[in-house]
Amino acid sequence: MATGKTLAEKILSAASGTDAVAGDIVIAAVDVVLAQDGTGPLVVSQWEKLGVGTVARPERTIFFLDHAAPSPRRELSNAHMIIRDFAAKTGAQLSDVAQGISHQRVAEDYTEPGFVIVGADSHTCTSGALAAFATGMGSTDIAVAVTAGKIWLRVPETIKIEVNGAMPDGVFAKDLMLTVIGRIGADGATYKALEFTGETIEQMPMTDRLTLSSLAVEAGAKAGLIAADAETKRWLTEHDRAAGYRDIAADPDAAYESVVTINAADLVPVVAAPHTVDNVKTAAALADVKIDQAFVGTCTNGRLEDIRIAAATVAGKTVAPGVRFLVAPASRGVYIAAAKAGYLATLAEAGAMIMNPGCGACVGVHEGILGDNEVCLSTQNRNFKGRLGNPDAFIYLASPATVAASALTGHITDPRDLRK
Amino acid sequence: MILKGKAHKFGDDISTDLITPGRYFHLRTNLPELAKHTLEDADPDFVKNMRPGDFVVAGGNFGLGSSREHAAIVIKLSGAGAVLAKSFARIFFRNAINQGVPAIICDTDLIAAGDELEVDVEKGEVKNVTTGVVIPAKPLPRAMLNILQDGGLVEHFQKNKGFRLD
Known about the structure:
Radius of gyration of chain B: 15 Å
Oligomer: heterodimer
Mean pLDDT of chain B: 97
Strand content of chain A: 15-25%
Low-confidence stretches of chain A: none
Helix content of chain B: 25-40%
CATH topology of the largest domain in chain A: Aconitase, domain 3
Distance between the termini of chain B: 19 Å
Strand content of chain B: 15-25%
CATH class of chain B: Alpha Beta
Largest sheet of chain A: 5 strands, parallel
CATH superfamily of chain B: Aconitase, domain 4
Number of strands of chain B: 7
Distance between the termini of chain A: 57 Å
Number of helices of chain B: 7
Structural class of chain A: alpha/beta
Number of strands of chain A: 18
């Protein structure tokens, strides 16, 4: 009896020219390959070691300088030079330090529904929001994909995340996804794909869908997929790429490994406490946690709408004494739009520090490294020990609304409390 | 391949930030220097205590987080013959095999720090020589075993002029 296909099975069937089902190992054609300044130099040296000397699709092979951008030290400046030289030599695309985070830029300028995207960065899964099979890998896999334009993949089983109902005021995509990760665990979807469905997802703008997909890897997932629909078409049109749209969705009779059902109306603002992303508690329960730093940005929550929410939260108010409030737009496009809309001025007037487009503090390299025993509340995706450059510090994760509200009070704050 | 060595034990959820901390990001183009800090935030004495052929033995979800292949490389440079865990995060799992480091999935509760182990990679078996217990390991998919036996993905790709899945 024929069974329908999940989104992952459908995309990987087309990309491999096979009738692929979960568990199959296939060789898939790759549409977009990416690497960044932390993983790129190793991609280049492995590419040289392979000795083939080709770049299969230079126009869709992109190296992003986003992790240490602009470079804080000599070694990283030299690493950037390795990447700039490689791009100049091979015709691969260079996204230099002013351009912003790879995943945001790929979603803006490259991803189309049905694409297979592999990247030497774990949050490559962000593009799953546009119905692309996008997944992170190491530098050697990416060197092979750069060279040959293909990669081997195990077709994953899929967990369906079905969300229905209206999201309550003060509750955002970040709260939804942290709640899901808290429920299934940081390894709950290892080797598997997540597929987000239901009326809440259908009505969700792309900016929030990208937040869900970017966090898929924090449940161990290989991909976090959402069917292409009118909102996908709207996003592509907004970025002058309407021609790249195609309908792609799972078959109604697709076989899922399991289904997680969420009633959006039951959600509340939540926070992931140190040192794992599945250590999820309500923001209200952590109200006695004082913060030293608040950070809005990253591939997970550094888009225009995230910055708008942060600005609206702090407008006409002042950041609490002793709190450093950092804001880093995810891309140059977001930066310009946020500047034109006045959000950056509103944030700066409240005491926030506006940083350049890029990964910012999130990688622990520069721009917001914590001191011993300090606490950061961040919109980033990971709270692992040492993530912000200091193993003796504490990272909590939340939505932009919760982070901005907490920047005003100086302790973890349910954003709904500010309106009382 | 049969590997012999001593177990260095770790808990669950050892992230790539614990294996290769972000504060050493600038050393990623200087791997021998980066390797001096392998797993430093999980066990400050790990590098000092490692002997060639010893094993990293951990709980569940080893290597979660970042895609940095440097995590697998520094474990290899520390002298580890293999990494044993109850489960691996998928990117680390691929990276280890691509670097020619066996990633063995087995019940590591049956292994204590300092135990002498014999690992038969092809057979999928871990013998705890100290306790006499034989622990079955989950077999690697054929495609990954091919890469491992060729010594890593670069070598595999060169030898086969592409991927060999069967």
